[in-house]
């Protein structure tokens, strides 16, 4: 295994992280904050750490990156950048302990949006910006950015790309992986810019527009306000709803839309299912809120669709406490926790396409039982899906639920009540943020014991890398030559 090249890439990742960190100084100056030295120490340590790893491994370096090195690089990259991302919190004394700062950093980078902060508005603006920036860095993936801007990683770059973005469709936009990564980041940047503009049209200032756009396009959910999006105007809530929905769509489809390839959108089973689930769930909850809470149709529609889109895309912004809804209402929200956004989006969860394949598989097998002599194949987007791929997808779903069950048991043994344990585990694995029990939409994760925070942080990274990239490191075969 080429450990030196793995460390070399980690050094590059830290340098990029340090450069992102330097943008905090903009807001230190704009708001004349006394946090300059805290951010300075954080930037210097991160940049020097990255430069040390990069320069120390560059002599006689052999740039070869196989599948094993890719898995190792990606997993350790997420742990390392999470650790270094705690520095702005710690050096500015915004968060007192490493375990809390690590949880907040992992939650930001994995776009989970779970927080341990009780008073978000008390934080310096530069720290709030960094908190939202971690969403934006992690949304598309810092490794995808590395592949995009560092030509050296064309050697084995596709393996690295797949390992970091296991949810992204393997349909290349261009023959070169680096070009594909650049186009994805271009779309990501474009959507962010558009949302900032639309939010500013709603009289939201530039700072808050930027922070909320970072949280929306990355499907993260960190807000600059204690009540999330609830205090903003209906216009702002509708804008965020639309952009959350767009962020939950496969970014490859955004590219095809720009290129005018509308046929690929029309025949995409996942997109139709994704939009169908949102429509049905939104309408059902709207009716429930109108009938049982006596809300006006527009208000019920806005609250219903905002919460539905926020949960299915794993963004985690809120405008209403769904735990106060009638049981049927919040039960629909609970079901959405197990859906997730589209593959190739910034959203988390199981992903819609896997559920589409699973249900089609059950239906095809049922037809085969009824018509044993017929040749019946499973098709997705008009293409045949072979049995091996179906088995892999079904295996992932089983592994996801087994991991969630084991994780719940672990949290219960850490003296967390059963409902909160299950909710926090599902939320962490699905990168959702608000959940149920003591970690509901109007609460936070501060009450979770320190050991539980580290464990949930592990589950966040596990869910962000879609299980197998991390689990494979714990097998004996992985470490054999």
Automatic annotation (TrEMBL):
It comes from the Bacteria. The keyword Nucleotidyltransferase does not apply. It is a multi-pass membrane protein. GO terms for cellular component: plasma membrane. InterPro entries: Cat_transpt (IPR003445), TrkH (IPR004772). It is found in: Cell inner membrane. Keywords: Cell inner membrane, Cell membrane, Ion transport, Membrane, Metal-binding, Potassium, Potassium transport, Transmembrane, Transmembrane helix, Transport. Pfam families: TrkH. One of its GO terms (molecular function) is metal ion binding. K(+) binds at residues 111-112, 220, 315. The chain crosses the membrane at residues 9-30, 36-59, 71-91, 133-153, 185-204, 235-253, 274-293, 330-350, 393-413, 418-436, 456-479. Belongs to the TrkH potassium transport family. This is Trk system potassium uptake protein TrkH. The lineage of its organism: Bacteria, Pseudomonadati, Bacteroidota, Bacteroidia, Marinilabiliales.
């Amino acid at each position: 295994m080429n450990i030196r090249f793995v460390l070399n890439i980690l050094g590059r990742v830290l340098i990029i992280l340090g450069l992102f960190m330097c943008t905090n100084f903009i807001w230190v100056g704009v708001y004349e904050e006394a946090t300059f030295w805290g951010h300075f120490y954080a930037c210097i340590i991160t940049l020097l750490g990255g430069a040390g790893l990069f320069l120390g491994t560059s002599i006689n370096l052999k740039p070869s990156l196989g599948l094993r090195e890719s898995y190792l690089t990606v997993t350790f990259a997420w742990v390392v950048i999470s650790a270094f991302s705690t520095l702005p919190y710690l050096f500015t004394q915004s968060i007192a302990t490493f375990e809390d700062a690590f949880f907040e950093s992992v939650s930001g980078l994995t776009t989970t949006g779970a927080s341990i902060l009780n008073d978000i508005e008390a934080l310096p603006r530069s720290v709030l910006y960094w908190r939202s920036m971690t969403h934006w860095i992690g949304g598309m993936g810092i490794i995808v950015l590395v592949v995009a801007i560092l030509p050296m990683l064309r050697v084995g770059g596709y393996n690295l790309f797949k390992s970091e973005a296991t949810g992204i469709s393997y349909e290349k936009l261009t023959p070169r992986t680096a070009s594909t990564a650049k186009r994805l980041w271009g779309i990501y940047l474009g959507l962010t810019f558009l949302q900032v503009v639309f939010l500013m049209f709603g009289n939201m200032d530039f700072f808050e527009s930027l922070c909320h756009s970072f949280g929306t396009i990355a499907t993260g959910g960190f807000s600059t306000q204690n009540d999330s999006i609830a205090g903003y105007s209906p216009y702002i809530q509708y804008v965020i709803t639309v952009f959350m929905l767009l962020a939950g769509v496969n970014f490859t489809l955004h590219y095809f839309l720009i290129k005018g390839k509308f046929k690929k959108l029309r025949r995409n089973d996942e997109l139709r299912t994704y939009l169908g689930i949102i429509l049905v769930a939104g309408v059902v909850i709207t009716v429930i809120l109108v009938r049982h809470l006596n809300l006006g149709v527009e208000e019920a529609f806005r609250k219903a669709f905002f919460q539905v889109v926020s949960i299915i895309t794993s963004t985690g912004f809120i405008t209403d406490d769904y735990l106060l809804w009638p049981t049927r209402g919040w039960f629909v929200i609970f079901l959405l926790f197990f859906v997730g956004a589209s593959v190739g989006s910034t959203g988390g969860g199981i992903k819609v396409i896997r559920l589409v394949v699973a249900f089609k598989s059950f239906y095809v097998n049922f037809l085969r039982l009824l018509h044993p002599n017929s040749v019946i194949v499973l098709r997705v987007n008009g293409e045949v899906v072979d049995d091996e791929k179906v088995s892999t997808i079904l295996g992932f779903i089983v592994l996801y639920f087994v991991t969630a069950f084991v994780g719940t048991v672990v949290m219960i043994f850490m003296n967390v009540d059963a409902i909160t344990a299950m909710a926090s585990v599902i939320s962490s694995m699905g990168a959702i943020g608000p959940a149920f029990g003591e970690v509901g939409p109007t609460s936070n994760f501060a009450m979770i014991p320190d050991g539980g925070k580290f464990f949930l942080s592990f589950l966040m990274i596990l869910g962000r890398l879609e299980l197998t990239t991390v689990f494979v490191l714990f097998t004996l075969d992985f470490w054999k030559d």
